[in-house]
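Hello K.,

You asked for the raw outputs rather than the summary table, so here they are, unedited. I folded two proteins back to back in the same session to keep the settings identical. This is the first:
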Amino acid sequence: MTNIIKNTINEIILLIYDVSIRWFGNKKQFFPTLEDINNKDIKELSKRLEGDSEKETLTNILEWQERNIKGWTDRMYMLITMISSYVITLVGFVISFIILIFIGSFSIFPVQIQTMMQINNIMFLSIVFGAFMSLMLYLIIKYKIIKRNVQEFKLKDIFSFSLPTAKILRYKLAICRDYAKLTASLLFNIYPSNGIFFFAIPWHVATGIEINNKKYVIDQKLPVLTWEKWLIYWKQKNTTVYISKLIKTSENQLRFYFKKYKKLSLRKDLLTKPIDTQKIQHEVVKILKISQISAKDKPDFELTFPKFATYYEDDEIVIYSMARAIKKKLENELCGNINTVSKIEIKHKKEDFVVDVYLNSK
C-alpha cells in the first residue's frame, strides 16, 4: 500500500512538473539559451574537455564538474524556505480572518476578539520577519568570503530560478538545474548535431545525450550512467524525458527544438544482470599503467565505492567512466604517490565496489 501511495504521488508530481515545463516556461531553469552556449568561456572549456572518443569526452565533462563545481545547498533550500514563509504567512492571515468572522458572528465581544486576533497577527508576523532577517544575516556573513574572490557575486542569485552559464562558471557553485544547463551548453558545443536530453524526476533534473542509439546521463559526479541505471540510482520506475536540438534556419541562425520525448520505464531485467569487475579492473590497470605484480599477501588499504555495483553496466562508456572514478579517488588518497600502486583487485559487495590496493615495498 505504501509503494502504491508513493508511486501515485510521484506520478502527480511528474505531471505537475511536465505541465509547468511545457506550458509555464519552467524549462528556462535548465534549458540553455544561445547566449549560454556561445559564451566564450563555455566554448573554451568545451575545447579543453573534448577527448579522442565519446567515452573520454563525456567522462571529462563529468569529472571536470565534480572537481570544480560545488553543490550550492543554500540555493537548493533557500527558495523553498522563502516560498514556505510566504505560504505560511498567507495561511496564518486566512485562518485568523476565518476565526474572526466565525467567532465574531456569535460573540457579544466582537471588538475584543478582533483586538486579540490583531495581536496574534502582529506576533506571527514578528516571528516570520525575525526568521527572515536571521536568514539574510546568515547569508551575508557566509557569502562575504565569496564576495572577496568573486567581486560580481550577487546575493540575490541565491534565490534565482535560473542562472546563466557565465555565472555558474564564475561562482563554481550549482544545483541540479544549473549542472543540467552547464552540461547541455558543453554538449551542444561538442555535439551540435546530437539530440540533448533532459531527464526529469520529482525534485531533480539531469542532462543526457544519445551516443550510438543509447542514452547516457551526465549528472554532477562520476560515473556516466545509462538512463536506466540512473533511474535505479534515484529509485524511480520511470522518468519524463525532453529532447532538444539546435536547428539552423534559412537565415543560417540557430534555434532550439524542444519537446517532450516520452516517458521511459525501467526494465526489471537490469537488476539481475551479472557484474564483471574484471573489465573495470582491466581499464584501471591500463589507465594507471599498473604492473599487477606484488609479493604482498594483503593489500595496504582498501577503498569503498558506494552503489557502484548498482551503476555497473557492460557498456564501454560506463566502464571507462567508472575506471576514471576509481583513478580519481586513488589520486585523492595517494596524491603524488599514485605511481607507488603495484596492484589492485576490484570486487563487489552487495551494492558497492571494494578496491584492494597494493603498494610498492619501501
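The second followed immediately with the same parameters:
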Amino acid sequence: MRAAATALASVLGAVALAGCGLGAGAAPKDVSLLVTSGFGARVLPAAGPLQVKGQETAMSLLERNYHVATSDGGGFVQSVDGLTGGQEAGAPVAWFYYVNGVEATRGADATNVRSGDRIWWDRHDWSQTEGVPAVVGSFPEPFLNGIEGKRLPVRVECATVAGYACRTVAARLRAVGVQAAVGAIEGARGPESLRVLVAPWARIEREPAARGLESGPRASGVYAQFSGGGGALALLESDGRTARTLRADTGLIAATRRGEGPPVWLVTGTDGQGAELAARALEQPTLQDRFAVALSPGGATPLPVDRTSTR
C-alpha cells in the first residue's frame, strides 16, 4: 500500500507539473524575456529567437532559452549561462525575477507566464536590500497587462492637474495605449489602481507610498535618496554609497510597492523643473532595462549608479 501511494503521488505530481508550465495548454503570446546582470547594466543575449512552447512558467521559459543551473529542488536559479549567485567583489549577489515590472513573490517554477508578460531576470548585489519590489524598466508594463493577469485602472495624480508635467505624463501613457484618469493627489483612497504620482518631492513626501525614499533602498527598493526637504537627490551605488548629489532641475522616475498592493510610480524631482524633466522622460527608450532613472539637464542616469563609472 505504501508503494502504491508513493506511485500515485508521483503521477499526481507529474500531472501538476505538466499543468504548471511543462508544455500543457496553449502557449502564451507576445511574451518577452530579458536576462541581465548588475541592475540591468549588462544584457545576456539568448542563443536565438525566443522559444515558447505550451504553457510556460517563469522557470521553464528561462530554461528553454538559456543554460540554467538551479538549487533547492529546481525552484531557484543558481546560474544562467555560467553567471552564478553567491559572492562578487565581497558583496552577496543572486538572481531575482520580475513580471511586468513587479518583483515576484513566488518561486519561478510556480509562476505561470501569461500572454503579454514581460519576464525579466537580473543578477545583482542585494547587500542593501533583499528585495526591489518594483522597477520601471518594463514600461509600458504594468500599465498595459497588469499584475498576475489582472489589468488595473490607472490614475495619474498630480500636484497641479493642469500643469505641464501632469499633462505630459498622461500623454505619454496614451501614446502606449493606456487611458488614465487624471486628478489631484488623494492618497490611497478609492478602488485599487495603479497610481502615478507627478509632483516635486516636497509635494508627495508625506504620501505613504513614497515616504520610504528618504530612508534609502532598504525601505523603498530605490537607489536614490531625497534630503533637504526634497531639494537634493543623492544617487546611490549598489553598496549604498552616494555616487553624487544633484540639486536644482533634477528629476526621478522610480516605482515602489508596499506589501501586496499595486506598485506606485513616482515622477518627481527636486523642484518643478525636475518633475517636468522626469515627465518628458517617461518613455521606453529612457526607461528600458532600468530599475529607476535620475534625470538632469545633462541626461539620464540609471540607478543604482554603476560603481565603475564613479571610480
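DSSP finds seven helices and 19 strands in the chain.

Happy to rerun anything if the numbers look odd on your end.

Regards,
P.
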